[in-house]
UniProtKB/TrEMBL annotation:
<dbReference type="Pfam" id="PF08768">
    <property type="entry name" value="THAP4_heme-bd"/>
</dbReference>
<dbReference type="InterPro" id="IPR012674">
    <property type="entry name" value="Calycin"/>
</dbReference>
<dbReference type="InterPro" id="IPR045165">
    <property type="entry name" value="Nitrobindin"/>
</dbReference>
<dbReference type="InterPro" id="IPR014878">
    <property type="entry name" value="THAP4-like_heme-bd"/>
</dbReference>
<feature type="domain" description="THAP4-like heme-binding">
    <location>
        <begin position="6"/>
        <end position="152"/>
    </location>
</feature>
<protein>
    <recommendedName>
        <fullName>THAP4-like heme-binding domain-containing protein</fullName>
    </recommendedName>
</protein>
Length: 155
């Protein structure tokens, strides 16, 4: 029997729902609901990634992004595309359910907001996925922006 091509990515596979809180020096604090899906493709060493957020009390859409979580040698890469004009490639060395990403590439379209750096961290523990997101924007240095706790949705 062949090994699972997902390897260390297997615990991340599935649909995750929950909520989080956002803060940043230049905006008001906010709460949001989120769905993240890490979808499998049979036999492939990657997961398709989709994230959708909504304002907790108003229900309006806030953010969406798409990409892939893929094995790359001993590391894991997160490739993300955002409709706000950003693409990024992040890399992490897996460690006990934790993916602490560092940026390899962050590019923006000429009209996109001046985001200069991002950092992401995912941690899966059974049926709980916790993530944090940091951002450097305009004159604000790399600052914690988002924290969420999601739970595996039953199919």
């Amino acid at each position: 029997m062949a090994d699972d091509p997902l390897g260390c990515l297997a615990p991340f596979a599935g649909r995750w729902t929950g909520g989080g809180d956002g803060h940043y020096p230049t905006i008001d604090d906010f709460a949001y609901d989120e769905t993240i899906e890490f979808a499998t493709i049979p036999g492939k060493p990657f997961l398709m990634y989709v994230s959708r957020t909504r304002h907790r009390t108003e229900g309006r859409p806030l953010h969406t992004e798409n990409g892939y979580l893929r094995r790359s040698g001993d590391d894991v890469e997160l490739l993300v595309s955002q409709p706000t004009g950003f693409v990024e490639i992040q890399r992490a060395r897996p460690a006990g359910g934790v993916l602490d990403f560092t940026t390899l590439t962050l590019e923006r379209s000429p009209e996109a907001k001046p985001v200069h750096e991002v950092r992401r961290r995912f941690e899966v523990d059974g049926d709980t996925l916790v993530y944090d997101f940091w951002m450097a924007h305009a004159d604000t240095p790399l600052t914690h922006h988002l924290h969420a706790e999601l739970h595996r949705a039953s199919e």
